[in-house]
Design a protein that fits this description.
With 83 residues, the protein is mainly alpha-helical. It has three helices and two strands. The protein has helices at 2-9, 23-32, 52-71; strands spanning 17-19, 41-43.
C-alpha cells in the first residue's frame, strides 16, 4: 500500500491489489501514510497457494478494479482522492 501511495505522490498512476482478509491492514497503512479512504482492488484470500488457473481467476477479478482506479478521479494525483 505504501509503495503505491509513494508512487502516486511522484505522479505515477498506481493501483494496489489486496486480499479481502488484509483490508483492515491496507486501510490502516493508507491512513498512516496520509491517504485515508485510498481505493484498491480486492481479491479473495489466499493468493499464495493458488495454482496458475486460480491466479488467472484472481487477475480477472482484479483487472477491472485496477482499470477503474487508474481511470478514476485523482489517478496519478494526490493519493486518497480515488473515492
Amino acid at each position: 500500500m505504501a509503495d503505491v501511495i509513494f508512487l502516486e505522490r511522484r505522479g505515477v498512476p498506481s493501483a494496489a491489489i489486496c486480499t479481502d482478509a488484509l483490508q483492515a491492514s491496507a486501510n490502516a497503512m493508507a491512513a498512516l501514510h496520509g491517504a485515508p479512504g485510498y481505493r484498491y482492488a480486492i481479491v479473495p484470500h489466499p493468493v499464495s497457494s493458488l495454482d496458475a488457473d486460480g491466479l488467472r481467476a484472481h487477475a480477472e477479478l482484479a483487472a477491472p478494479q485496477v482499470l477503474e482506479i487508474l481511470r478514476g478521479p485523482g489517478a496519478g494525483g494526490e493519493p486518497g482522492r480515488h473515492s
